[in-house]
């Protein structure tokens, strides 16, 4: 029997673009979500970052509500809510409301990372030990979003997260290390690995941990997705020219220099010897090219990692070039 077709989804972070207003990035995300639904993508996820000079998507639950009002079919999700900052009960209420707006279409992806620097993280939650309670938070959140009862000795016993309905948000565990993989396996949750953060490092090990330790819980069988950075253009030359913006961001980040995405013509600078070695490795691993080339790379990666769904993130300075990349990939994979 042939393998099932590869499913593609989208992760958009509302990236800041040099010379463009930051609020424009939020509206670009809304427009992209509508187009991605038209092109047949499985789901559209948005991220949570705080105080970032590069990413201005700070409130995924608010952005998801706007996307829900503008779409009809595509699943909408957070990738993710940084749970240690918040009360699980409040997050459950927010996502129950989202599920009322888009019944059966809401993904609640959660992560343990701060999505910010240490000082900003403390502004969100002054308790520096908050992340240690993450496993318990996940259990509470799952009970409240699904309508299950908490134990009799729990302070939340008998208190529901409203509104109740016939459907519920789908909880996902997000991660870029073995920690999230093992927690997702222990709780029987779907798991998404952030391949784009690590440039693939640790992906095989995390997915192996998830599958080998999986216990039935929310799911009866493991369900894994991998979030990758990819860029397609009408020509290979154009794709690599557009890639210069992300390349510069990655190189600068390694030396602690953060800022908005630069247009390709301004992104080129002289690199040191160590930076040149990093760039060579970055380009070798990059999923960049024509739609046919990127399709082959995506399918090879999915086959190697044994996943049926890839979540694609694409940064370009020009929003039209970003949308064109998703359009080309959708057509190439016949979504």
From TrEMBL:
Gene Ontology molecular function terms on file: oxidoreductase activity
Domain Luciferase-like residues, every copy: 9-303
Keywords: Oxidoreductase
InterPro entries to which the protein is assigned, alphabetical: Bact_Lucif_Oxidored (IPR050766), CmoO-like (IPR019949), Luciferase-like_dom (IPR011251), Luciferase-like_sf (IPR036661)
Enzyme class: oxidoreductase
SUPFAM superfamilies listed in its UniProt record: Bacterial luciferase-like
Domain of life of the source: Bacteria
Pfam families: Bac_luciferase (PF00296)
EC number: 1.-.-.-
Record-linked NCBIfam families: oxido_grp_1
Family the UniProt entry places it in: To bacterial alkanal monooxygenase alpha and beta chains.
Record's protein name: LLM class flavin-dependent oxidoreductase
Top-level taxonomy: Bacteria, Pseudomonadati, Pseudomonadota, Betaproteobacteria, Burkholderiales
């Amino acid at each position: 029997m042939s393998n099932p077709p590869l499913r593609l989804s989208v992760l958009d972070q509302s990236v800041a673009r040099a010379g463009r207003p930051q609020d424009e990035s939020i509206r670009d995300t809304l427009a992209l979500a509508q187009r991605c639904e038209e092109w047949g993508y499985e789901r559209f996820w948005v991220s949570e970052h705080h105080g970032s000079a590069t990413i201005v998507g700070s409130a995924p639950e608010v952005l998801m509500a706007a996307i829900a009002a503008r779409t009809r079919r595509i699943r909408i999700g957070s990738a993710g809510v940084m749970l240690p900052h918040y009360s699980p009960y409040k997050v459950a209420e927010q996502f129950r409301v989202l599920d009322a707006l888009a019944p059966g279409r809401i993904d609640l992806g959660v992560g343990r990372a701060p999505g910010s620097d240490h000082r900003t993280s403390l502004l969100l939650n002054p308790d520096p030990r908050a992340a240690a309670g993450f496993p318990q938070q996940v259990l509470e959140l799952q009970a409240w979003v699904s309508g299950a009862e908490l134990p009799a000795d729990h302070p939340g016993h008998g208190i529901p997260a409203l509104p109740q309905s016939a459907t519920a948000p789908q909880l996902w565990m997000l991660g870029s290390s073995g920690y999230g993989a093992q927690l997702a396996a222990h709780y029987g949750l779907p798991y998404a690995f952030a391949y784009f953060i690590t440039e693939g490092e640790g992906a095989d090990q995390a997915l192996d941990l998830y599958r080998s330790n999986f216990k039935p819980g929310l799911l009866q069988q493991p369900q894994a997705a991998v979030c990758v950075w990819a860029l397609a253009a009408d020509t290979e030359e154009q794709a690599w020219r557009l890639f210069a913006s992300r390349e510069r961001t990655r190189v600068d980040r390694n030396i602690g220099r953060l800022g908005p995405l630069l247009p390709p013509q301004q992104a080129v600078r002289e690199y040191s010897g160590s930076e040149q070695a990093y760039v060579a490795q970055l380009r070798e691993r990059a999923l960049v090219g024509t739609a046919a080339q990127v399709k082959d790379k995506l399918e090879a990666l999915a086959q190697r990692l044994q996943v049926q769904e890839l979540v694609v993130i694409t940064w370009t300075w020009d929003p039209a070039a970003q949308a064109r990349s998703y359009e080309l990939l959708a057509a190439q994979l016949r979504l």
